[in-house]
Amino acid sequence: MIGAVYPAGSSYLTKNVRRLFVRHVFKVVLGMSAVWLGSTGMLHAQPAGPQGPLPVSVIEARSTNIPNVLEVTAQAEGAKETEVRSRVNGILLKRLYEEGSPVTAGQPLFQIDPEPFKITLEEAQARAKQTAREAARLKLLFSKQAVSRKEFDDATSVNEIAQATLKTAQLNLKWTTVTAPVDGISGRSLRSEGNLISNTGDAGLLTSIYQINPIWVRFGLSSSDTAQLPSGRLDPKQNTSIELLLPNGQVYAEKGQLNFQSTFIDPKLGTQQMRAEFPNPNSAILPGQFLRIRITTGMQENVFLVPQAAVVQSERGFMVWTVGPESKVVPTPIKVGKWSGKNWIVLSGLKPGDQVVTDQLIKIRPGAVVKPTVVPLNQASPGAASGSAPTAGAQKNAAAQKDAR
After folding, report:
1. Beta carbons within 10 angstroms of residue 357's beta carbon
2. I need a labelling partner for 140 at 20 to 30 A (CA). Which of 37, 168, 183, 199 fits?
3. Cα separation of 173 and 87, whole Å?
4. Distance (Å, whole) CA 337 – CA 344
5. 74-131 pLDDT, tens per residue?
6. Are β-strands 272-278 and 54-60 bridged in parallel, bridged antiparallel, or unpaired?
7. Bridge partners of 296?
8. Distance between CA 151 and CA 129 in Å, rounded?
9. CA dist list (Å): 69 to 129, 296, 344, 383
């Protein structure tokens, strides 16, 4: 009110001024927002029209024949593993070889205390000389009819026993030096100096010698492995190639040959045990070493190769997206085998000429219209390396498959 007088200390004026200020600021902000929206065109935006076909890369399915390839874990073992045992009882005095070194047949490996056997030998020698003299004396008397036939025969028998005892004593003394029975690589010593060695049971086992050229590699095939072979089993009559994969992933230079195939399934392991032989001139493979063995045998006929990234895996199995009539994608269930490089081996579910989508799988839904571009198999979206776990792309593909269904 004009001319009105407000009491001193009144808050009426202050509240009015504050209210007017707030209204002014609100109008200013609202005006600026309208100007900004108008400049960006958002106030006049029109709804988007229908999108065009989704560009995708596809491969044309072509049937082919590829070899059957199996890879399984294997373990090396010596072609001959010979135990070195003591033939006499006694105290072990010394080890005469370096553990793990190559040894030759006849090389001394251990020394057992020979003194008791020397004494036994001396006694046997004395006894043999005595009986030999007695047998010769009675032989002369018998020729003169001075003794009976029985006395002569008894003396002869005693002499023969004494001579045999002498030979036993000589052998026992010789056996106190334990030698290598074959050539090979020596193992660790199982007995230490001062141990009492017995020639019975495990107490007589001193070490082992391994012949590693050639080397044997033992492995087993499960029922799921043999099911992938044409006849359901490994046929040695077929042209079979056996390769060895070293721990660093490289292929061993020497080719192997199957030298044993069991005729029954091991009840403990559930596998058919087999063994291959490989040349090992440089001792690159050692007994007990774990490796992988690759078996190539026979052919898989009329199969298809599809990039790993194009295959979707879910709880319902495997599938791919194929281009159907009117360029619409269709989920196609497939049956897969193993990996071949960066591709899946598809056993069934595809026909020659089918167009398999290899990219844009996350954006695809059943019935979506696409614009396919045919690319060669080797230029399709790369998958994971052979034998590795599914890639992140494959996991996303599985998620897309689940959403699509």
Report:
1. 23
2. 168
3. 10
4. 7
5. 999 888 889 999 999 999 999 999 998 999 999 999 999 999 999 999 999 999 999 9
6. unpaired
7. 69, 241
8. 18
9. 73, 5, 13, 19
